[in-house]
Structure formats: structure tokens, C-alpha cells
Design brief:
This protein is α/β, with parallel strands linked by helices. The protein has a single domain, classed as TIM Barrel (Alpha-Beta Barrel), CATH 3.20.20. It is 43% helix and 18% strand. The strands form two sheets. The chain has an eight-stranded parallel barrel with strand order 3-4-5-6-7-8-9-11, surrounded by eight helices. The chain has a two-stranded antiparallel sheet with strand order 1-2. Strand 7, helix 8 and strand 8 form a beta-alpha-beta unit. This is Luciferase-like monooxygenase. InterPro entries: Bact_Lucif_Oxidored (IPR050766), CmoO-like (IPR019949), Luciferase-like_dom (IPR011251), Luciferase-like_sf (IPR036661).
Amino acid sequence: MTLLGKGHTKRGAPHICYHSSNYFLNAPYDIMNVTYSVLDLAVVTEGQTHADAIRCSRQLAKEVEQMGYTRFWMAEHHNMENIASSATSLLLGHIAVATDTIRVGSGGVMLPNHSPLIIAEQFGTLATIYPDRIDLGLGRAPGTDQATAQAIRPDRMQQVRQFPRNVKQLQQYFSTDNSTSAVRAIPGEGTEVPIWILGSSTDSAHLAAAMGLPYAFASHFAPQQLHAALEVYRDNFQPSEQLEAPYVMPCVNVVAADTDEQAEWLSTSLKQMFMGVVTGDRRPMPAPVDDMSDVWTPREKMAVEQMLTYSFIGGPNTISEQLSDFLDQTGADEIMIASYIYDQTQRMRSHRLVADIMSS
């Protein structure tokens, strides 16, 4: 990513413009030009409490800040025994107070679950306390099962259809122009919190392009439409006050270790966790096993491996080759790393190895 610097919108509010230099110049891909970030869900492992998982997330954020990661995002999920990130904005404040420079944000907030005004107030408050460090990634999926989605908001499906309008309403609440409106976000007004569109299909790509917003793609669990969505986004992008050129950030799973064999063993926790997604058994993430054939059926294996298409597992040389190939194929401006590893020390080691690869 090339940071063009802070400028001013037509309304005089500060903003940041990004330029996707590698993609538009068709230059040979240089991994060192790619910004790297972290997606975290406060995953609960076997034997942990929810408080333990949150402490581990906070510790990880402090460590990856020192490693040179740009963002630490957390995702909204509900009614899942193995994920403790349901109150996303509260956790982001917990992360932001423990760090100094890393950007903290949502990957994402599921906007149809919420009133745009409440999200503007929550993230506007965060941006007021931690200026120039807060991101707001927005998705429209429920982040849970249908029964829980109904409990969160009975009119949720109507709000899904209103998603583009509600994104624009959020932008209005964050702007200085809203100072004369009858309904205002205080704190929040004038903070111009950067908004991202999250998605896993071409529908989200069309919206991000039309609104001129940066685009984060959930290729770490929904790989099918990645390349089609990036093409739609870039081909249809309309410059905006927030962003002058397309900016894409796909998310991938990475399990890095000192050797390929160790990484493969560690990755069995990731595979078991995603098997729980397939079967609906969302128990805490289990410890690694020596042989996955004792754990899953052939059909479950096929489903999990399809979801984990963009999962990079191995020692430093293997991970370097895999990430370089992926970045070359996608022309990504930034890559977001999700590392589901049972042991916290090994998880931080994985992120260290990725940071070394991306910066060397």
C-alpha cells in the first residue's frame, strides 16, 4: 500500500486516500509493498474460559503491533460457544487501550443487526478516544444462526435490503455536514471513521465499487467468488471522498511454524474447528491431532478443504511461496491474516514468521 497522506474532503474533513500501485502499474509483485493485518475472533480453545480468550486476543494485539502489522480487526458473531467477540465494539475498545499505533476495527460489524445511529455513536466514541486508529468494516450476514438472528432483530431481512442506504446513513452521521440534522451522532460527528465493505460475493463487490469504498473479501472461509468479485470491484470502482482508487484486502488463513510438518500438525485444530462449522458443532477449538482421518468423514473432509482453499500451511519457505503466489494472482493491496492455532505461543510464533516474510 502506498499511503498518499491525509487530505481534505470537499467538506473539509480529514480523510486518507490509498493507491493500489501494484495492480494498476502491472509491475512485478513485490511482497514487501503489501500491508499485512490480523483478523481475530477471540476464539475459545478447549479448557479456556471466555475471559481467557479475550486476554489472549489483547496479548496478541500488543505483540503484532510490535511486529509491524497495520490493523487488528475483530468480527461480530453470536451464540457460538467457541467465539467471544459478540460485543465487538466493546472488545475493540479493550484492544485499543492496550495498544498505541495499530489500527483497530471491525471485520466486521453486521450492520443489519444494528441501528446505524448506534453504530455511529459506538465507533464515533472509539474514534474520539483513539483518533486516526479506528476502522469500521461492515457486512450484511447475520453472524449467527437464523433463530439467533431473529432474536437480535425481528425485522432483520428488511434491514438487509436497506444495507446500502444504511451505509450511506452511517457516512452522514460521521460527517460534519450532519451538524444541522435533527438526529446526530455525538460523539461521532466529524470523525469521518473509514468505512470498509466486507463480503464474499460479487454483490458486495458491486456495492463497494459504487460507493468508492475499500473492499475486504472473506476468502478465508468463502473462496468461491474471490477472483470474480475482485474483477467486478476494480472494473466498476467509482472514486469517492474516502478513496481515489480501488483497494482490496482478502483474508486468508495462515498456520506458519518452523517446519512444514509442525505446521501441518498445528493446522489440525483449524480443520477441526471448520469441521464444526460444517456439522454445526461449534464447541471450543480442540487441540491438534496426529491423524485427521480418525476425526472426520470423507464428506466432511471435502467440505472443509473447499472452505479452506486459501489456507496457507507450512514452514517459512512454504508460506513465502504460497503468499507470493496468492498476492500475484489477486493483486491485493493488503492481506489480512487469520491464524486459528490452539496454543497461544505457537499462534504468536506464526504471526512472527508471517511478519518476517512480509518485511524481508
